[in-house]
Structures are given as C-alpha cells and as structure tokens.
Amino acid sequence: KDVKDYLHLLDKPLDEFEAPGARNSTLGEDALWHVLYSLGQDNTYLNKRKAYWGLVLAVRDRMLEKWTAVQRKYYANDDKRLYYLSLEFLPGKFLRGNLLALGLENEAHEFLHEHDLSLDEIVDEECEPGLGNGGLGRLASCYMDSMATLGLPAYGYGIRYSYGLFRQEIRNGHQVEQPDNWLHEGSHWLIPRPHNLFPIRFYGTVNEWLDDDGMLRHDWRGGDLVMAMANDMYVPGYRNGHVNSIRLWEARPHKEFVLSSFNAGDYIGSVQEKISDENISMVLYPSDDAPEGKTLRLKQQYFFVAATMRDMVRRFKKLNKPWDQLPEKNVVQLNETHPAIAIPELMRMLLDEELLGWEEAWCICQKLFAYTNHTILPEALETWPVKLIERLLPRHMQIIYEINRRFLEEVRLHFRDEPELPSRVSLISAGPEQRVRMSHLAIVGSFSVNGVSSLHTQILKDRVFHDFIRIFPDRFNNKTNGITPRRWLRQCNVPLSWLLSEHLGCNWITDLTQLKKLRELVDDVEFRHDWEQCRLTNKKRLADYIEKVNGITVNPHSIFDVQVKRFHEYKRQLLNILHIISLYNNIRRNPDVKMQPCTFIFGGKAAPSYQMAKDIIYLINCVARRVNSDPHTRNFLKVIFLANYNVSLAQLLVPATDVSEQISTAGYEASGTGNMKFALNGALTIGTRDGANIEIGERVGDGNIYLFGLCEKEVLALRRRGYDPWEFYKNDSELREVLDMINSDQFTPGDSTAFSSIFNSLLTGGDPFMVLADYRAYVETHKRISHEYVDRDLWIKKSIMNTAGMGYFSSDRAVKEYIDGIWSLEPDV
Ligand code: GLS
C-alpha cells in the first residue's frame, strides 16, 4: 500500500484544537507562498529543495501559533515551569516528526504528490543537528518530546553550536573527522531572537562593600563581556496542540568592533576580538562519558547557564512574587554536572544583585535544583582546577568556598567520630592541584539526585556517592531512562506501526503499556507471518542502503547483528570483533559447515583524542576487508562498518536488527538507551547484566533475552582477587588463536604491529574491561542464538515478546516519574 493511503488508520485522530480548518489555507498553499515570499524563488515549479524549505516554513507557522498560545496560557495559569539544562541535545531530523505530531503528514503527502515529489526524497534535503555526543543528548531530546506530549510547562536550554559533533569518514579503515557545518544553509527550524540578549561576564575582579545594615556585600565587575543570544527550536506534542521550545544560546561579540582600535587602523585586531567571543558557542566537545578539562568547555558551561538563570529570573520577576516562591514556581533539572555551575551563579545573583541573605538564598537554591548523574566512570566525573575557576569566575569560587565551609561544618558536627569524612565529601579535592568536584557541588546544592537505571542508582548509593547517602538519605532516587515511542517506533518503523495499530488501535503511541496485549497474539500464525514480513521489509531497506553506501551486498535473510554506539573500551566492541574472528576461523576450518549466515554491523564515533577507540575502529575495518573478500566465508559472514552513525542512521538500523549487542562490562554502562530502541522494535538482545539490560530482561522475560558473562558483583570480586587475562589466553586455544592473529600481520599484510596496542592492553595491560574473562560465555551465547534463529516460529515469538514487554521504557513513563517524584508539575493541556 502507499503510505498516504493508510496514515489515517495509523495515528490517533486530531482533537478539535488541531482540526483542519482552524486555518483557511492548506499546508501546500502556505508552502508555495513561502517559496515565493520567504525564499524569494519562483514557485510555479518546485524542486526538492524548494519543496523542503517551503514545507518547513509552513509547518513552522503552525508551531509558532501554538507555541505563543501555550506561553500565554503558562502566564495566565501561573504555572510552575521546568528548566531542563543540558549541554547536549540530539533531536535528529525534524520534518517528519513535526508533521506527525501536528497531524499534517497526509496534507504533506498530497502536496508533494501534486508536484511529483515524495516525503522520502525531500527529507534527504534536511541536515541533522548533531548537538550532542550520544545517549545523554538523545535522552534530553526524548524527554523534550514526552514533556510536550504530556503538556508540561517545560523549557529545554542549551547551546547553539555552530559546529555539531564531527562528521565521521572512514578512509583506508581509519576514522577521519570532518567539520559538521550543519548551519551552512541556515536552519529554519531555529528562530533567532536577537532581542533576547544577555551580557555574560568572564574574569574581572570582586569588590566588597557594606550595605545599609552593615552587611558585607560583593560586586563582580570588569573582565570580558560576551553576549548570549537566544535561538529557539520548537517541540510539538503528539497531537495535543501543545508546543514547547528549546532555547539555545549563541555567543555574540559584546561590541561589534572595538572602535578605538578600528579607528587607529587595527581593523584585524578589532575583528579578532569579535571572533574570540564567538568561539564560545562554536563547537561541541566531541567526548562522551569523559570530561574535557579545557578552559573553553568551562566557559561554555558558565555561558549557557548564566544566560538561562537570567531568563528564568526575568520570567519570574513578571509575576511580582517574593523570592522564596522561586522554587514553588520553577524547578531546574541539571542533565549531568555540566550545568552545575548554575548553583553558585544563582547564589551570586540572589546575594549580589538581589541582596538576599546567605541562608535565604541557599534555601532557595536547594529547593530549586535537581541533578541527574549519567556516568560512574571515575575518570568521567568532572572536576575543575580551583585556579581556573578563580581566574575565570572569581566570585563563583568565593561562593563555592563558602558553600563548602558551611557544608563541612555541618558534616563535622553530625559525624564527630569520622574525622576522614569531611575530606572525602569536600567540594574541593586536596592534592598538589586543588580541584572543584562538580558532582559534590551538584549533590550539596540540589534536593534530588537520581541515577538512570536501578543498577546504576544502586552503584551510586553503594560506591560512588556512598558517603553522601548517609548525609542526605532522602536525596537519592532512581529514574530509569526511557525513549520516545513517536520517533523510535511510529516514525522509524512504519510497517510495524501499521501492524500494531491494526491489532491494538493506535493508543500505544501515547500509552506504550498497551503493547502488552501483543502477548495474546503470539500464537496467531497469521500475525506472526505479518510480523516477519514487516521485519523483512525493514531489513531489505537497510540492505539497499548498505549496497548503496558501502558497495557490499548483504543477504536480508542473514542474521542482522548490530552494535552501534560510541566507541569506548567499556562498551567492548572488541569482544564483538574477537568473536567474529573466531567465527571466521571456524568457517575456514569447516568449509561444509551448516550455519545461518550472519551480517555483523558496526557504527559509532570515537572521540578524536581517544587513540585506543580509533584503533578498534581500524581493527574492525581491517577484519571486514579480509572477511568480506574471502571466497570461503563470503556466503556466511559479512562485516559492515557504517560510517557517521547518527540519529537518522539509527532510525534506519533499529527496525532492521535481529540481534542487539549490549555487551558493556557489568557496572560500567549507566543505563543505555539504544538497548531499549532495538528491543522495542523486536530485536533480541545479547547483553551483560548491566545498566537497563537487567530491567529489560525482567520485562521481556528470561527466555527472550540472551544475558551472559560476569555480573557487576563478580567483576568487582574478580578484580579484588586478582584478575589475570593470561590465564584465559593460555587455557582457551580458540581465543589464543584470535589474539595471536591480531598480534600479527594477518589483517594488515606487511604490518604486524598495527594492533599491538590492543593486544598489549588485553594482556600485559591487564585487560581493564575484562574482555577475555567474558569471551567464552559470549561465544557460547552466540552459538545458541545462531541455533535458535533457525527455528523461525520460536524466534518470531521471542521477537513479539520483546516488543510486548517494552512498554515500560517509554520516555512518557520516565517523565511522569520525574513529575511525580521530583518536579511536582501540573500538565497544562
Ligand atoms: C550516558 C551513559 O553512558 C548511558 O549509559 C546513558 O544511557 C546515557 C543517558 O542516561 O548517559 N552518560 C554519558 O555521559 N553519555 C551517555 O550516553
């Protein structure tokens, strides 16, 4: 069937707020109007570009109408507002999702059809904003979608990076980074607001003065000023007439030119200053799960946080309420510690600008802020040198010292017999270089601290923040992550959405728990047949893409086994490739082997400075080259590396995946959200007992997930006992063969040292992520998978049971838990 013929069956009907006719022009008429009057182009004929931009502007008009109405309502109802502060957002492409949410898909199809175009072609014109690294940024975008769909008075806040995460190319097997100039054509999804401007100060000095009551006051002045200018991105709720926004700050020079030097003839010098100010919002730091200890990063953090706090206070002041009502009317969620400098910044505003007393100001902060932790990797917990903060933000350092002095005084009072405790929980670490521990600042300055899966929160309580649990026993809580079913099922998997809506009705789109009704259908032969057909359609689409982009033909009936995520040693892409090499060896040894053909697909970026991760990418590509060209194995085994993994590619991969690889060392992956996307679309997970995998297992049922390897407690115990990877090397001949191949020129003819860094890390380096310890269990589990896949009835039943069990992992559920447990907000629809 043609998509446009069945869309009306697929989705929830529009409510009266959305009814067509609320406008007296159609989407197509408006698009044509914009082609002429906004783009200044001939609208008597359309090409893809004109159609795309015209549609964007017509859709945007409709969102703006709703957004302004919603903003008016917030003031009229005196709503409490949520500020979601995140250095990263990864929204993915907008057009399809916005059409879907606003109920305009049909109109768009009709309009494009009249001009001999299709939606599929014109979304290619759209460039995806890569304003995030991975899971953390994508989570922020899923939550913004749910907040709008639940009708919450919520604002996202972040940075409008001129360059998003680098574009990844693979050349001769190596990752090469290219700039991502996503704004080169401009983006009409982003509305600049040149009048929403705030000056942001850096450096300078702090003066003291006495107020009328003889109280010592502080005044931060001098230094450099940079302007923060707002750019708004709109987030429509799913068919509820609600539109929220994400405000992204862009750095602008404080003065266009330094006039004096301009007049003195130093034109270049005056422009230089302008350029260095704009640098603040120039580029996203390309590291995930790791801190970037660079001054510019701290500048970015303060820049966006300072502008956001001013915006919040500006709105609050319109209400004419006393300051103690600030936390009754607002709540600020800190996405990781990246925005934690907001705490001393708000203190500074309240103390130095609004002249409140310390206790009053501190009480407001502690009721306003809530902090989400997303990682426990010790090397990833942010700290900043005291010296750096002192220079860049001198007043903030004074405030941090005072917060710490008061906090430690309390700790000493309540834990008299633990003299070591204060130095462990101090906001400032001792040592040759004193550093501010941003997580400690975030914990002390917030009323809520949450982890992102049950296991992760438990680890926070037991290990990482154990001391704080005793000091603030009620502050810690868990909010297991979720994903939006709109993008991660309805949008990315139209065939399956169609099947679901046909059997369950379309309420699953906003109430994902409805999927549990699928369990009643697993024994229905016809349903299972349709299910398999949907999967095959998606796999064929992916195979076409691979053929087009990588030039490799893959068999859509082979097992599509996919690991896509950032490259990191703890995620263990290495374990995956070691297994593939051993499979390759086995097939070569037994040319007559009867096995289900497998296509192993990888994707993901390595931080440009993370050499080991880049070496692993190179290894995968070298193995792929060898395996794919070997006539003995070609029909059984393919290895594909898809370059430049991003949200759009994820939308293509997720519905086409049979086996989802979630194989981090237990205890290291805070939650994972890719794991949820795959299982929701009917993939079976091979995974460790880590992050949200455990909860996924509980919901889809033991028999429908392949969990293997050491659990978190076993990882700790083995490390305590003394882990020796050489033992595994000696005792497992298959593994030894694989490792020796890596340590030779088998995959890089003529160069036997290409992967010695990897070999050494796994053996002499002590194998910090216990790849060898989990190797055997992983290989055996893969054998089971390969065996069970052949039993199509069994496999499809398991696939259905996965989708059926995933309702819990909707970001709607997660956001509702934040509302009830942390934010105390009222939906406003
Ligand atoms: C991350 C974690 O590594 C992921 O496990 C988690 O799912 C995600 C969202 O909570 O946050 N932390 C991080 O710094 N990057 C991530 O993806």
What does this structure look like?
- With 829 residues, the chain is of the alpha/beta class.
- It folds into three domains: 1-76 and 93-127, no CATH class; 78-91 and 128-197 and 224-481, Glycogen Phosphorylase B (Rossmann fold, 3-Layer(aba) Sandwich); 555-801, Glycogen Phosphorylase B (Rossmann fold).
- The chain contains 34 helices and 22 strands.
- The strands form five sheets. A nine-stranded mixed sheet has the order 5-8-9-2-1-10-11-15-16. The protein has a six-stranded parallel sheet with strand order 19-18-17-20-21-22, with helices on both faces. A three-stranded antiparallel sheet has the order 12-14-13.
- The protein starts with a helix and ends in a 6-residue tail after the last helix.
- The mean pLDDT is 95.
- Bound molecules: beta-D-glucopyranose spirohydantoin (GLS).
CATH architectural name of the largest domain:
3-Layer(aba) Sandwich
What's the CATH class label of the largest domain?
Alpha Beta
> What proportion strand?
5-15%
CATH superfamily descriptor of the largest domain: Glycogen Phosphorylase B
Mean pLDDT: 95
Structural class: alpha/beta
Shape type: globular
Bound molecules: beta-D-glucopyranose spirohydantoin
Looking at the structure, the CATH topology of the largest domain is Rossmann fold
Number of helices: 34
Organism: Halodesulfovibrio marinisediminis DSM 17456
Enzyme class: transferase
Keywords: Allosteric enzyme, Carbohydrate metabolism, Cytoplasm, Glycosyltransferase, Pyridoxal phosphate, Transferase
Protein name: Alpha-1,4 glucan phosphorylase
